[in-house]
Amino acid sequence: MATYPTNGLTLDQANAIIAAARAKGRELGLMPLTVVVLDAGGQVKASQREDGSSLLRPEIALGKAYGALALGLGGRELARRATAMQGFMNALSDIAGGRAVPVPGGVLACGPDGVILGAVGISGDVSAQDEVCAVAGIQAAGLTPDTGDAA
Description:
Distance between the termini: 39 Å
CATH superfamily: Haem-degrading domain
CATH class: Alpha Beta
Strand content: 15-25%
Number of strands: 5
Helix content: 40-55%
Order of helices and strands: HEEHHHEEHE
Mean pLDDT: 94
Largest sheet: 5 strands, antiparallel
CATH topology: Beta-Lactamase
Radius of gyration: 14 Å
Number of domains: 1
Number of helices: 5
């Protein structure tokens, strides 16, 4: 069987992240979730929107993942910087075409060597709960989550 290069996460890892993140959301009784997984190049590797997930959830989830990946920082750190450096974060949003959402729920997915392989964004419930689901998904795929807070 031929092998092809990946840009970070594999499709199997992305699908495992989504399955585990959704399972965590159901376990916690959260609102319907939308999960977006980006590869290291910022491209959508996989995405699912649960039944009942509201209209803009895919864009919000994408923005959480994209913002984290764009700066190489988890969503919690982006949220702190949005408060401390509003001008910079506004400029980032403009440069990113509005796709950077600096709140928890955007989590970097790292390999065992610390290299960023992609990012996960989840939207549907409160940001802190979205983040819990992203972390669970990343860990289930055998990767290390970076939320922007020290481990």
